[in-house]
Please model this.
Amino acid sequence: MENRVVIGAALLHRGRVLAARRSAPAETAGRWEFPGGKVEPGETPQQALARELREELGVEARALAPLPGEWAVRPGLVLRIWTAELLSGDPLPLQDHSELRWLGPAELDGVDWLDHDRAVLPEVARLLNAS
Ligand SMILES: Nc1nc2c([nH]c(=O)n2[C@H]2C[C@H](O)[C@@H](COP(=O)(O)OP(=O)(O)OP(=O)(O)O)O2)c(=O)[nH]1
Model:
């Protein structure tokens, strides 16, 4: 089976990154993640990231670069995390999330991230500290 890709967006803005608390399904509800979702057939990862953030948060955002690493979410589904910048709008938990938080580099450990997302936190902290 061809792998589908899930893109998570590490949305960087004014020295902080946006964390989003999942509202479903039950197994992951309450855990924190990078907003995003599956790349649809015919879409580039960059297009998928922009579409998902428009749908989920009501903002315009632009994908910047993939962070190192990829993780098998389940057979046939691979997670990649890209940095992104906010172009316009103020993120709201319109879809899929119950809460949003902007976290600075020293606050990244303060929320209960999904397991795979933890792997990129050192790199996100490094980027935030450098910005
Ligand atoms: N969006 C997102 N999903 C993540 C992250 N980390 C992680 O393990 N996942 C997992 C959770 C889900 O099993 C899967 C993505 O599913 P999703 O529900 O966000 O994707 P989607 O909006 O396109 O879903 P769908 O309703 O179209 O099926 O990847 C992350 O940082 N962001």
